[in-house]
Amino acid sequence: MQAIDARNLTKSFGDLVAVDGISFSIASGEIFGLLGPNGAGKTTTISMLSTMQKPTSGTATVNGHDVVTREDDVRKSIGIVFQDQSLDEELTAYENMDFHGRLYRIGGEERRRRIGELLALVGLADRKDDLVKTYSGGMRRRLEIARGLLHEPKVLFLDEPTLGLDPQTRNHLWEYIARLNNEKGITIILTTHYMEEADRLCDRIAIVDRGTIVALDTAENLKHSIGGDVVTITSPDPDKIADLLTAPWVSGIERHDGSVTVRLQEADRHIPGIVTAIHQSGIGINSLSVRKPTLEDVFLHYTGKTIRDEEADGKETIRMFQRARRR
Ligand SMILES: Nc1ncnc2c1ncn2[C@@H]1O[C@H](COP(=O)(O)OP(=O)(O)OP(=O)(O)O)[C@@H](O)[C@H]1O
What we know:
Layout: E1 2-13, E2 16-27, E3 31-35, H1 42-49, E4 57-62, E5 65-66, H2 71-76, E6 78-81, H3 93-103, H4 108-121, H5 137-148, E7 155-159, H6 167-184, E8 187-192, H7 195-201, E9 204-209, E10 212-217, H8 219-225, E11 229-234, H9 238-244, E12 250-256, E13 259-264, H10 267-280, E14 287-291, H11 295-303, H12 309-326
Parallel strand pairs: 3-8, 3-9, 6-7, 7-8
Antiparallel strand pairs: 1-2, 1-4, 4-5, 9-10, 11-13, 11-14, 12-13
Helix pairs in contact: 3-4
Bound molecules: adenosine-5'-triphosphate (ATP).
Adenosine-5'-triphosphate is lined by residues 13, 16, 18, 36, 38-44, 191.
Protein backbone atom coordinates (compact mmCIF):
# COMPACT_ATOMS: atom_id res chain seq x y z
CA MET A 1 0.00 0.00 0.00
CA GLN A 2 1.08 3.57 -0.64
CA ALA A 3 1.65 5.50 2.57
CA ILE A 4 1.33 8.82 0.74
CA ASP A 5 -0.07 9.78 -2.61
CA ALA A 6 -0.02 13.43 -3.71
CA ARG A 7 -1.58 14.57 -7.00
CA ASN A 8 -1.05 18.08 -8.34
CA LEU A 9 -0.79 19.42 -4.82
CA THR A 10 -0.72 23.21 -4.88
CA LYS A 11 -0.57 25.92 -2.23
CA SER A 12 -0.66 29.63 -2.92
CA PHE A 13 -0.27 32.50 -0.51
CA GLY A 14 -1.79 35.43 -2.39
CA ASP A 15 0.25 35.76 -5.59
CA LEU A 16 3.00 33.47 -4.37
CA VAL A 17 2.72 29.84 -5.46
CA ALA A 18 4.66 28.10 -2.69
CA VAL A 19 3.90 24.56 -3.93
CA ASP A 20 3.14 24.29 -7.61
CA GLY A 21 1.24 21.16 -8.60
CA ILE A 22 3.52 18.46 -7.23
CA SER A 23 2.76 14.73 -7.55
CA PHE A 24 4.50 11.80 -5.91
CA SER A 25 3.83 8.55 -4.08
CA ILE A 26 5.65 7.10 -1.08
CA ALA A 27 5.54 3.38 -0.34
CA SER A 28 4.99 2.05 3.17
CA GLY A 29 8.28 1.68 5.02
CA GLU A 30 10.19 4.15 2.83
CA ILE A 31 12.37 6.99 4.06
CA PHE A 32 11.58 9.75 1.61
CA GLY A 33 13.40 13.07 1.50
CA LEU A 34 12.34 16.47 0.20
CA LEU A 35 15.62 18.21 -0.50
CA GLY A 36 15.78 21.86 -1.47
CA PRO A 37 16.93 25.36 -0.50
CA ASN A 38 15.15 27.85 1.74
CA GLY A 39 11.73 28.75 0.44
CA ALA A 40 11.53 25.83 -2.01
CA GLY A 41 8.18 24.72 -0.58
CA LYS A 42 9.25 21.71 1.50
CA THR A 43 7.63 22.72 4.79
CA THR A 44 4.46 23.82 3.00
CA THR A 45 4.28 20.41 1.30
CA ILE A 46 4.48 18.45 4.52
CA SER A 47 2.17 20.94 6.23
CA MET A 48 -0.49 20.03 3.67
CA LEU A 49 0.18 16.29 4.00
CA SER A 50 -0.04 16.53 7.77
CA THR A 51 -3.32 18.57 7.55
CA MET A 52 -1.79 21.68 9.11
CA GLN A 53 -2.56 23.64 5.95
CA LYS A 54 -5.26 23.06 3.36
CA PRO A 55 -4.15 22.71 -0.28
CA THR A 56 -5.30 25.45 -2.65
CA SER A 57 -5.86 22.70 -5.21
CA GLY A 58 -4.92 19.09 -5.89
CA THR A 59 -5.39 16.09 -3.64
CA ALA A 60 -3.39 13.89 -1.31
CA THR A 61 -3.98 10.80 0.75
CA VAL A 62 -2.00 9.67 3.77
CA ASN A 63 -2.44 6.06 4.88
CA GLY A 64 -5.36 5.97 2.46
CA HIS A 65 -7.17 8.96 4.03
CA ASP A 66 -7.81 12.17 2.09
CA VAL A 67 -6.02 15.10 3.78
CA VAL A 68 -9.00 17.42 3.36
CA THR A 69 -12.09 15.24 3.83
CA ARG A 70 -10.61 12.78 6.37
CA GLU A 71 -8.46 15.14 8.39
CA ASP A 72 -8.99 13.36 11.74
CA ASP A 73 -8.10 9.93 10.35
CA VAL A 74 -4.92 11.38 8.82
CA ARG A 75 -3.96 13.02 12.12
CA LYS A 76 -4.43 9.83 14.12
CA SER A 77 -2.18 7.93 11.75
CA ILE A 78 0.77 10.35 11.63
CA GLY A 79 3.45 11.75 13.92
CA ILE A 80 4.91 15.21 13.35
CA VAL A 81 8.15 16.79 14.45
CA PHE A 82 8.29 20.30 13.07
CA GLN A 83 11.11 22.80 13.20
CA ASP A 84 10.06 24.84 16.19
CA GLN A 85 10.67 23.12 19.44
CA SER A 86 7.53 22.47 21.48
CA LEU A 87 8.84 20.67 24.56
CA ASP A 88 8.13 21.95 28.05
CA GLU A 89 11.57 22.80 29.41
CA GLU A 90 10.43 22.81 33.03
CA LEU A 91 9.27 19.19 32.83
CA THR A 92 11.35 16.02 32.65
CA ALA A 93 11.54 13.95 29.49
CA TYR A 94 9.23 11.38 31.05
CA GLU A 95 6.71 14.06 32.07
CA ASN A 96 6.74 15.56 28.55
CA MET A 97 6.02 12.12 27.12
CA ASP A 98 3.41 11.33 29.74
CA PHE A 99 1.55 14.59 29.13
CA HIS A 100 1.47 13.90 25.41
CA GLY A 101 0.27 10.31 25.99
CA ARG A 102 -2.60 11.58 28.12
CA LEU A 103 -3.61 14.02 25.35
CA TYR A 104 -3.87 11.02 23.05
CA ARG A 105 -5.81 9.15 25.77
CA ILE A 106 -3.35 6.28 25.94
CA GLY A 107 -4.21 4.23 29.08
CA GLY A 108 -1.84 4.15 32.12
CA GLU A 109 -0.06 0.80 31.79
CA GLU A 110 0.22 1.00 28.01
CA ARG A 111 1.41 4.61 28.22
CA ARG A 112 4.21 3.67 30.64
CA ARG A 113 5.25 0.75 28.45
CA ARG A 114 5.44 2.84 25.29
CA ILE A 115 7.28 5.72 26.97
CA GLY A 116 9.88 3.30 28.33
CA GLU A 117 10.34 1.63 24.96
CA LEU A 118 10.59 4.87 22.97
CA LEU A 119 12.96 6.61 25.37
CA ALA A 120 15.19 3.54 25.11
CA LEU A 121 14.91 3.61 21.32
CA VAL A 122 16.22 7.19 21.17
CA GLY A 123 18.85 6.56 23.84
CA LEU A 124 17.32 8.69 26.60
CA ALA A 125 16.18 6.03 29.09
CA ASP A 126 18.84 6.93 31.64
CA ARG A 127 18.06 10.65 31.42
CA LYS A 128 14.28 10.33 31.55
CA ASP A 129 13.93 12.05 34.94
CA ASP A 130 16.11 15.05 34.07
CA LEU A 131 14.52 18.38 33.22
CA VAL A 132 14.47 19.11 29.49
CA LYS A 133 16.18 22.44 30.12
CA THR A 134 19.33 20.47 30.96
CA TYR A 135 19.24 18.66 27.59
CA SER A 136 21.51 19.36 24.61
CA GLY A 137 20.03 20.25 21.20
CA GLY A 138 20.46 16.68 19.93
CA MET A 139 18.78 15.18 23.01
CA ARG A 140 15.82 17.52 22.64
CA ARG A 141 15.39 16.55 19.00
CA ARG A 142 15.50 12.85 19.95
CA LEU A 143 12.91 13.43 22.64
CA GLU A 144 10.65 15.23 20.18
CA ILE A 145 10.94 12.30 17.79
CA ALA A 146 10.12 9.82 20.58
CA ARG A 147 7.12 11.94 21.56
CA GLY A 148 5.93 12.06 17.94
CA LEU A 149 5.84 8.25 17.97
CA LEU A 150 3.91 7.76 21.20
CA HIS A 151 0.54 7.15 19.54
CA GLU A 152 2.18 4.61 17.20
CA PRO A 153 1.77 6.46 13.90
CA LYS A 154 2.42 4.67 10.62
CA VAL A 155 3.94 7.76 9.05
CA LEU A 156 6.33 10.21 10.68
CA PHE A 157 6.96 13.72 9.30
CA LEU A 158 10.30 15.26 10.23
CA ASP A 159 10.83 18.87 9.19
CA GLU A 160 14.60 19.54 9.07
CA PRO A 161 15.32 17.00 11.84
CA THR A 162 18.98 17.92 12.25
CA LEU A 163 18.86 21.65 11.55
CA GLY A 164 21.52 23.50 13.51
CA LEU A 165 23.00 20.38 15.15
CA ASP A 166 26.73 19.77 15.03
CA PRO A 167 27.95 17.11 12.57
CA GLN A 168 28.53 14.46 15.25
CA THR A 169 25.07 14.88 16.79
CA ARG A 170 23.59 14.90 13.30
CA ASN A 171 25.26 11.55 12.57
CA HIS A 172 23.90 10.16 15.80
CA LEU A 173 20.38 11.26 15.00
CA TRP A 174 20.58 9.66 11.55
CA GLU A 175 21.29 6.36 13.27
CA TYR A 176 18.20 6.72 15.47
CA ILE A 177 16.02 7.65 12.50
CA ALA A 178 17.30 4.70 10.47
CA ARG A 179 16.79 2.41 13.46
CA LEU A 180 13.17 3.36 14.01
CA ASN A 181 12.49 2.90 10.32
CA ASN A 182 14.13 -0.55 10.49
CA GLU A 183 12.74 -1.74 13.77
CA LYS A 184 9.26 -0.30 13.56
CA GLY A 185 8.75 -0.17 9.81
CA ILE A 186 7.57 3.45 10.06
CA THR A 187 7.37 5.44 6.84
CA ILE A 188 9.40 8.62 7.24
CA ILE A 189 9.13 11.74 5.16
CA LEU A 190 11.69 14.37 5.97
CA THR A 191 12.71 17.74 4.65
CA THR A 192 16.31 18.80 4.57
CA HIS A 193 18.87 21.25 3.24
CA TYR A 194 21.66 18.83 3.94
CA MET A 195 22.86 16.82 0.95
CA GLU A 196 24.62 14.29 3.12
CA GLU A 197 21.51 13.75 5.20
CA ALA A 198 19.41 12.98 2.13
CA ASP A 199 22.17 10.80 0.71
CA ARG A 200 22.72 8.75 3.86
CA LEU A 201 19.16 8.33 5.08
CA CYS A 202 16.69 8.42 2.24
CA ASP A 203 15.55 5.54 0.05
CA ARG A 204 14.37 8.13 -2.46
CA ILE A 205 14.84 11.86 -2.75
CA ALA A 206 12.65 14.50 -4.36
CA ILE A 207 14.68 17.58 -5.28
CA VAL A 208 12.42 20.57 -4.77
CA ASP A 209 12.97 24.02 -6.22
CA ARG A 210 10.50 26.91 -6.42
CA GLY A 211 7.54 24.77 -5.49
CA THR A 212 8.14 22.00 -8.00
CA ILE A 213 9.87 18.62 -7.94
CA VAL A 214 12.70 18.87 -10.44
CA ALA A 215 13.98 15.30 -9.97
CA LEU A 216 12.91 12.26 -7.96
CA ASP A 217 14.75 8.96 -7.55
CA THR A 218 17.24 7.09 -5.37
CA ALA A 219 20.43 9.04 -4.60
CA GLU A 220 22.34 6.55 -6.72
CA ASN A 221 20.10 6.97 -9.76
CA LEU A 222 20.01 10.74 -9.41
CA LYS A 223 23.79 10.88 -9.48
CA HIS A 224 23.87 8.47 -12.37
CA SER A 225 21.28 10.50 -14.27
CA ILE A 226 23.59 13.45 -14.71
CA GLY A 227 26.18 11.25 -16.34
CA GLY A 228 29.73 10.11 -15.63
CA ASP A 229 32.48 11.93 -13.75
CA VAL A 230 32.67 15.57 -12.76
CA VAL A 231 35.74 17.56 -13.74
CA THR A 232 36.11 21.03 -12.26
CA ILE A 233 38.61 23.38 -13.84
CA THR A 234 39.37 26.74 -12.28
CA SER A 235 40.83 29.27 -14.64
CA PRO A 236 41.05 33.03 -15.27
CA ASP A 237 38.97 32.35 -18.37
CA PRO A 238 36.36 29.65 -17.70
CA ASP A 239 34.09 30.83 -20.53
CA LYS A 240 36.76 30.14 -23.14
CA ILE A 241 37.29 26.65 -21.70
CA ALA A 242 33.55 25.97 -21.88
CA ASP A 243 33.50 27.09 -25.53
CA LEU A 244 36.41 24.79 -26.30
CA LEU A 245 34.88 21.58 -24.92
CA THR A 246 32.43 20.62 -27.60
CA ALA A 247 33.37 16.92 -28.04
CA PRO A 248 30.47 14.45 -28.12
CA TRP A 249 31.73 12.67 -24.98
CA VAL A 250 31.12 15.85 -22.93
CA SER A 251 27.65 15.28 -21.50
CA GLY A 252 27.32 18.65 -19.81
CA ILE A 253 29.09 21.90 -19.04
CA GLU A 254 28.24 24.44 -16.37
CA ARG A 255 29.91 27.81 -16.16
CA HIS A 256 30.49 29.39 -12.78
CA ASP A 257 32.36 32.40 -11.57
CA GLY A 258 36.02 31.43 -11.99
CA SER A 259 35.44 27.79 -12.84
CA VAL A 260 33.81 25.44 -15.25
CA THR A 261 32.29 22.06 -14.37
CA VAL A 262 32.39 19.43 -17.07
CA ARG A 263 30.53 16.13 -16.91
CA LEU A 264 31.86 13.29 -18.99
CA GLN A 265 32.16 9.50 -19.04
CA GLU A 266 35.58 7.99 -18.32
CA ALA A 267 37.28 11.22 -17.29
CA ASP A 268 40.65 9.45 -16.89
CA ARG A 269 40.81 8.78 -20.60
CA HIS A 270 39.93 12.31 -21.70
CA ILE A 271 41.74 14.57 -19.23
CA PRO A 272 45.15 14.60 -20.99
CA GLY A 273 43.43 15.68 -24.22
CA ILE A 274 41.42 18.36 -22.42
CA VAL A 275 44.52 19.81 -20.74
CA THR A 276 46.46 19.83 -24.03
CA ALA A 277 43.60 21.56 -25.88
CA ILE A 278 43.31 24.24 -23.18
CA HIS A 279 47.07 24.89 -23.20
CA GLN A 280 47.20 25.04 -26.99
CA SER A 281 44.53 27.73 -26.89
CA GLY A 282 46.71 29.78 -24.54
CA ILE A 283 44.24 29.58 -21.64
CA GLY A 284 45.59 29.22 -18.10
CA ILE A 285 44.47 26.52 -15.66
CA ASN A 286 44.68 27.21 -11.92
CA SER A 287 43.44 23.80 -10.81
CA LEU A 288 41.72 20.69 -12.09
CA SER A 289 39.90 18.08 -10.03
CA VAL A 290 37.99 14.90 -10.89
CA ARG A 291 35.35 13.20 -8.78
CA LYS A 292 32.16 11.16 -8.89
CA PRO A 293 28.96 13.25 -8.95
CA THR A 294 27.39 14.20 -5.61
CA LEU A 295 23.84 15.28 -4.85
CA GLU A 296 25.17 18.85 -4.93
CA ASP A 297 26.02 18.30 -8.63
CA VAL A 298 22.58 16.80 -9.18
CA PHE A 299 20.97 19.84 -7.61
CA LEU A 300 23.14 22.21 -9.61
CA HIS A 301 22.33 20.30 -12.78
CA TYR A 302 18.57 20.44 -12.31
CA THR A 303 18.26 23.94 -10.85
CA GLY A 304 21.37 25.84 -11.89
CA LYS A 305 21.95 26.68 -8.21
CA THR A 306 23.86 25.29 -5.25
CA ILE A 307 22.46 24.52 -1.81
CA ARG A 308 24.91 25.31 0.86
CA ASP A 309 24.85 24.00 4.41
CA GLU A 310 25.45 27.54 5.65
CA GLU A 311 21.99 28.42 4.41
CA ALA A 312 20.51 26.04 6.93
CA ASP A 313 22.80 27.15 9.70
CA GLY A 314 22.04 30.79 8.99
CA LYS A 315 18.36 30.01 9.29
CA GLU A 316 18.87 28.31 12.63
CA THR A 317 20.66 31.41 13.90
CA ILE A 318 17.63 33.50 12.98
CA ARG A 319 15.33 30.99 14.75
CA MET A 320 17.45 31.02 17.91
CA PHE A 321 17.30 34.79 17.88
CA GLN A 322 13.51 34.72 17.47
CA ARG A 323 13.17 32.15 20.28
CA ALA A 324 15.35 34.23 22.58
CA ARG A 325 13.19 37.31 21.90
CA ARG A 326 9.99 35.38 22.66
CA ARG A 327 11.23 34.42 26.13
N1 LIG B 1 1.98 31.32 5.80
C1 LIG B 1 2.62 31.84 4.77
N2 LIG B 1 2.24 33.01 4.24
C2 LIG B 1 2.89 33.53 3.16
N3 LIG B 1 3.93 32.95 2.54
C3 LIG B 1 4.36 31.78 3.04
C4 LIG B 1 3.74 31.16 4.17
N4 LIG B 1 4.38 29.99 4.42
C5 LIG B 1 5.35 29.89 3.50
N5 LIG B 1 5.35 30.95 2.68
C6 LIG B 1 6.24 31.17 1.53
O1 LIG B 1 6.15 30.03 0.70
C7 LIG B 1 7.42 29.69 0.16
C8 LIG B 1 7.77 28.27 0.54
O2 LIG B 1 8.00 28.22 1.95
P1 LIG B 1 8.37 26.88 2.71
O3 LIG B 1 8.53 27.22 4.16
O4 LIG B 1 7.42 25.82 2.34
O5 LIG B 1 9.77 26.54 2.07
P2 LIG B 1 10.85 25.52 2.57
O6 LIG B 1 11.37 24.83 1.38
O7 LIG B 1 10.32 24.67 3.66
O8 LIG B 1 11.94 26.48 3.13
P3 LIG B 1 12.43 26.61 4.61
O9 LIG B 1 13.40 25.52 4.75
O10 LIG B 1 13.03 27.96 4.61
O11 LIG B 1 11.24 26.47 5.52
C9 LIG B 1 8.40 30.73 0.70
O12 LIG B 1 8.55 31.74 -0.26
C10 LIG B 1 7.70 31.25 1.94
O13 LIG B 1 8.10 32.57 2.20
